[in-house]
Write a structure and sequence with these properties.
Helix content: 10-25%
Low-confidence stretches: none
Strand content: 25-35%
Number of domains: 1
Shape: globular
Radius of gyration: 14 Å
Mean pLDDT: 90
């Protein structure tokens, strides 16, 4: 697969932000949900108590940060299809300096779609 991302450099967490990363490659590339926010915010198997400490939620696709969100509320989903999974409500950080940065050096080829930085 050809790399379609422009190189904005590698991500560095200079401010020691607490970040939760979600690999949305499949749901995003296959257009399984209406937009990037919906791909990022729901149906995750994770520790809710840990996630509630996150300053940012990153949407990761092919090792790059394609979306940055500031979660305001975490809760167990009400969907009967995904019992016990978590979702968040939040706002998009549209002009984030993190957008389009390569983060694969931190999350690697992790099988788990959820990764934590500084948490």
């Amino acid at each position: 697969m050809e790399n379609v991302f422009r190189d904005y450099g590698s991500f560095e967490n200079k401010n020691n932000d607490r970040i939760i990363c979600f690999n949305v490659s499949r749901t995003y590339l296959q257009c399984e949900r209406p937009n990037l926010y919906e791909c990022t915010r729901k149906y995750w198997r994770l520790c809710g108590k840990r996630a509630q400490n996150a300053d940012f939620a990153f949407a990761i696709c092919s090792g790059y940060i394609i979306g940055v969100f500031r979660p305001t509320r975490w809760f167990l989903t009400s969907s009967k299809e995904y019992p016990g999974r978590w979702e968040f409500e939040g706002e998009e950080v549209e002009n984030s300096p993190f957008l389009n940065m390569n983060i694969s050096h931190l999350i690697g080829k992790n099988q788990n779609p959820v990764s934590y930085i500084n948490m």
